[in-house]
Model the fold of this input.
Amino acid sequence: MRTRKVQILVIGVLILWTFVTYYILLHNSSVQSDTKQKEQQQLKQLFPKALLEQSKSLKISDTLVSFLKLRYMNQETSTTPKITIVAAEISNELQEQQPKTTATTSAQIPTKTYLANGEPVIPILVFACNRISVVKCLENLVQYRPSVEQFPIIVSQDCGDELTKQAIQSFGNQLTLIEQPDQSDIMVLPKEKKFKGYYKIARHYGWALNTTFHVGFEYVVIVEDDLNVAPDFFEYFLATHKLLKQDKSLWCVSAWNDNGKANVVDIGSPELLYRTDFFPGLGWMLTKDLWSELSVKWPKSFWDDWIRHPEQRKDRVCIRPEISRTRTFGKIGVSNGLFFDKYLKHIKLSEHFVHFTKMNLSYLLKDNYDNTFLKQVYVLPLVTFDELRRNLIAKEGPVRIQYNNRDQYKRITRMLGLMDDFRSGVPRTAYHGIVSFYYNKRRVHLAPSANWKGYDLSWS
Done:
């Protein structure tokens, strides 16, 4: 009897276990089915989004290709590199990249912004990366610097190159080293990968200028790590900085003459200065007010061509010298030595010290300059290039050669050995379309007709 009861109990337990097991398996199957359905629904939702994002990327690429074809195909090949602001504009299509928050190990920038006599402190901001030869630039600056207090040298290094850093630090307390903290890679469009260096330079410039002007300086002079400077480099900026505040039509002072080769400048007139619509760069001074304006829209690449665009320039001009106060020795860089051998290595560096601070430079103010320079040019004798080249001009003194279109301008400048390119329609060194130079011992003005209507962007 007891055996039968045990058998019945065992059978009951087995039946109960079977039902429990079945229920668990059924429940798990239902959960897995629901999970799979949810995953399928999520995939269905995500897949169109992925296609949409891919479509946007394709659309951007197609737009870029169409724009570049329309803009550059069938154009005459220039003797100078064709770097434009296109990539800077298109790069806005890329996802905004957040800089790394790595703390900088930079030294403290000098905080004194004015001397006891009221003169401004004007820092020399040197941009460096991975050139050990930056020591040539720094030795030059230290050699000619008239006052450590008024002209503190701040070297801003990107790239994180240790040997270059050591070379900079070898100058000790003669300068201050700051280091760009964001060393992250930069995402660029596929066709812009070869220009990635220009993106990093723009990022570096933005950071370094923000960092320096944040101290409170009214002026900053920018120098690249491959520049030598003339003996009166500091004197030049000390004399001209006041003009930037006095004349709102001026927005920079540059130490560079793009057409500064020895055979086309007046070696005997190192004191000559000009106004130019073309932004020269390569050793230049800007004000805090100008940086406040530009910094809020600073481009992601090709900052120098961006700054030459009418939207930034706003008809403002720079001052530039007859004979350059800077000279580049950097053949190798992001531009891979483009036109260095043909132009840059032939630029004449001034060897004479001109006491600019003792000169009256008011002739460079807009009203004074326009009332003399422009009027003088258009009353000069009109000659041809052939007459100039063969020295067939009877009268001594300055002359004028006229150009009427882009092709004519490029043909004449090539024959003269001048730079023939345009940026945003502006020829290098031009003022109101007039390019002034020295040839066969006389001043020559290559000028448009007297009824000139302004620069044409399509000439670039």
